[in-house]
Amino acid sequence: MSAEPLFRVRDLRKYYPVRDDDGLFNLNFLGEPKSLKAVDDVSFEINRGEIVGVAGQSGCGKSTLGELLVLLQQATGGDIQFRGTSVSDYSKAERKAFRRECQIVFQDPYESLNPRFTVSQTVKEPLVVHGIGDAVKRDERVREALSDAGLSPPEAYLDKLPAELSGGERQRVSIARALVVDPLFLVADEPVSMLDVSIRTEILHLFEDLQKKRDLTMMYISHDLSTINYLADRTMIMYLGDVVELGPTRSVIRDPAHPYTEALLESVPMADPEQGRVGTERTASDIRGDVPDPVDLPSGCRFRTRCQYATDRCSAEEPALDDFDDGRQVACFYPVSDGDA
Predict the structure, then answer these.
(1) What is the pTM (predicted TM-score) of this model?
(2) What would the pLDDT profile of 207-221 be if each residue is shown by its tens digit?
(3) Where are the domains of the chain?
């Protein structure tokens, strides 16, 4: 991995103003519009050649974070630097070049493909948009991308429509569409969650092979910690728009430091319930109550209303994401791990 991070993100925010049924802004007690804080002051780095997993329950902001990184959404505030340059300073041409280098694979293979486009048209479209190659070269790259995505022989798929493909084949077409422009960075947003269990393992192996073959840097987004444990070098845990734990996957999974991470791991189904979750001897921790309203977040630590370890300090202060042990950061006053797993 290079010394210079591929991405350096600082204080990134994405807020959505809340409107009432009449389309008017909801106001707080200060008369200011209320906002849903989908991503709230998030800072991290992604190194060249690594896979960073992002986990958390639905609505935690992980998909929004991925879309912000590839400029599918405009940030409310903060800064995203790609190879040392802030994306906010990009010209129109630089933004287009960035979008060639940074691609995304969406969750739903049934909605992310144009039903009227053949496989060949779908995978070739990014080449046309970016003006890459002549007709012959484009056909070669389409076949190579399909082959790398596990659709072999590619000639058997070129003229098929999405309706003629299985869910796994559709997702492989989506992956080929992302690969065809030879990107540096790939966001995989819940790419196996809608696939049969038998196909999920194949797609995970595919991502692992692609990372090695193409030296891809990836952000792998999932609510399933078992897939992140298999694939990711580092893991980021999000809760209500904030990062609560970030570090080497082995440490985060085997010896969680944040109470929310601990609770997430307790919820992972096990084939043998008597074994408990993988890599730990801890007893189950209970999450109390429901997820707070993301528009009206609790004071202090946003997890405190559900945390069995919370004290008055957790109500009064919001913990920063601070260094915890070697290579790991945790946003908690009372970590549940001793560190150095």
Answers:
(1) 0.90
(2) 999 999 999 999 999
(3) 34-59+223-340, 90-216
